[in-house]
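Progress against Task 2.4 (sequence-to-structure conversion) is shown through the following example record, which the project officer requested during the mid-term review.
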Amino acid sequence: MFEEMPMSEHRTRDYAMISTYPPTQCGIATFAAALSGGLYELGDDVGIVRVGGENDPAKEIVVAELTGQHGELTLGARTELNRADVVIVQHEYGIYEGPDGEDIVGVLEEIDRPTIVVAHTVLENPTQHQRLVLEAVVRAADAVVVMTEAGRQRLCNSFDVDKRKISVIPHGALVSDAVRLEESNAQPRLLTWGLLGPGKGIEWAIDALAQLRDLKPRVKYIVAGNTHPKVFEYEGDVYRNMLIQRAKNRKVDVEFDPEYRSLASLARLISEASIVILPYDSPDQVTSGVLVDAIAAGRPVIATAFPHAVELLSTGAGIVVPRQDPSALAEAIRTVLTTPGLAQRMAAEARRLAPELAWPHIASRYALLGEELLTKRAPVSATR
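Structure tokens generated for the chain above:
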């Protein structure tokens, strides 16, 4: 079991969090909102120092914008960051200014409070500059969180970092009463969701469906999510349109749902799925919020062999298949849909894993890490 701080021992704290934030449509923004909510449930206060939200309406939780012109830290941001007890920084190369988001290093160096960096991406083969940026981020932080053991091993073994700073805290999820899978003759529903763009591998799932035309009733595949805003900016809906045409050419039943859903709406959609399909191309995904949400909802999962899937599905909640292999994907789908009791056993294992992924539990682990950092800085804290 993961270590958790008992509520009776929790001392409320003020957190500042550097991150994108809703209504920005990205996984980091969703993560920041959920972790903030978990800390609020513990009684803590959280202020978001927002990245890249200049055109978004300000929410009460957003206390400052990160940078002004030329990547300089705004006075408001500096004030909010240095008045907090602990600062949490969501790190992803693409959300900060400068090549590979290097400007965040200077921001970290201006913060005099304990800092926890959440490393959302740890590349297996980074460019030299990406390597230098992440190593500099780790040096400037007091603690670094990765969300899987695979991420920890990759960061510790492949980057020049202080291993003592690295902790593993899983990605959280909204855990509700999962709808149990029942043996049924209803139409099977496969589901993939998330912002779309090249690398999602949905084309391989469409190709896999073409190999399952003999199954009765016919399999339906739901692809939920709009094109990623950054992908749309550079190439429009090219990927989505390719997928739509591919489904027509293969004569398979695919529904493309572009709605950006609330957590409640997404939970309903997931609960209706027979199997969640994660056909990603990249071998670099050491963290997947979609995977965690699927497990939290008690759904069987079929995923390609990215690190987080290999790790989280190892006890039987899902099946891992090779990347870009429609035949292997089709075989796995067929096995789950036609083997009596298999989907139910996978769902039961997912429900067993779910409680330790709940956001209040995960937030408690961040709070515990924050307390450890504050204890190390006791002389500074005592003067406040």
